Amino acid sequence: MTIIIGLGNPGKQYENTRHSFGFRVLDFLVGRRSLGEGGWDEKYSSKFIKLEDVILAKPQTFMNKSGEAVKEILKYYDNAQLIVIHDELDLPLGSIRVQKDISAAGHNGVQSIIDELGTKDFIRIRLGIDNPQTRGQIPGDDFVLQKFTEQEEQIVNEVLEITKTAIETLQTEGFDMAQSKFNG
């Protein structure tokens, strides 16, 4: 069993913001039916879809409390492989990193998961969101809550496709292969 957590903030006002990039990936996967059909259930403090061997979950606890929802899910699926997909301000827009067992590096949602689980030993797919041209002097906390520009959306769509392929690689070829293919 694989549990894929997409991080973001619930609510219409946060849709398509940089900080909800993880939610967008899961919506893309379901919309493209690459992982199966079905609608989102409300379960485990998350929007939740259980397929044959994959669970998709979007915590509804807000970013800073994401770990509470993840911990709740893992009570029932404790032997599952955990993959967390999230935005990363420290990476340029368009970049992706597949990593494991690393610190939160200032990401509050990831830190919440580490704190609740008592470990950082899980796979993360970090999606770059920084763009000096649109960010300017905006503080990081404000920048992550902005929506992508029309020009940036083209890059976001490419990242969605790449992330889908990275997830498939993790499932079929394993972590080491996914890391070597996508950390370029």
UniProtKB/TrEMBL annotation:
Q: Which GO terms describe its biological process?
A: protein quality control for misfolded or incompletely synthesized proteins; rescue of stalled ribosome
- Binding positions for tRNA? 14, 62, 64, 108
Task: Identify one Pfam family in the record.
Answer: Pept_tRNA_hydro
The UniProt keywords, alphabetically, are: Cytoplasm, Hydrolase, RNA-binding, tRNA-binding
Q: Name where it mostly resides.
A: cytoplasm
GO molecular function terms attached to this record: peptidyl-tRNA hydrolase activity; tRNA binding
Taxonomy, superkingdom: Bacteria
Site described as Stabilizes the basic form of H active site to accept a proton, positions?
87
- What EC number(s) would the UniProt record show? 3.1.1.29
List the catalytic activities from the record. an N-acyl-L-alpha-aminoacyl-tRNA + H2O = an N-acyl-L-amino acid + a tRNA + H(+)
- Classification via Gene3D superfamilies: Peptidyl-tRNA hydrolase
State where the protein is found.
Cytoplasm
**Main EC class the enzyme belongs to:** hydrolase
SUPFAM superfamilies tied to this protein: Peptidyl-tRNA hydrolase-like (SSF53178)
The entry's active site is 19
Residues flagged as site, Discriminates between blocked and unblocked aminoacyl-tRNA = 9
Gene Ontology cellular-component annotations: cytoplasm
Self-association state and partner proteins as the record states: Monomer.
What the protein does comes down to: Hydrolyzes ribosome-free peptidyl-tRNAs (with 1 or more amino acids incorporated), which drop off the ribosome during protein synthesis, or as a result of ribosome stalling. Catalyzes the release of premature peptidyl moieties from peptidyl-tRNA molecules trapped in stalled 50S ribosomal subunits, and thus maintains levels of free tRNAs and 50S ribosomes.
Q: Which NCBIfam families match?
A: pth
Which protein family is named in the record?
A: Belongs to the PTH family.
**By what name is this protein known?**
Peptidyl-tRNA hydrolase
Task: Look up and give the organism this protein is from.
Answer: Candidatus Doudnabacteria bacterium RIFCSPHIGHO2_01_FULL_41_86
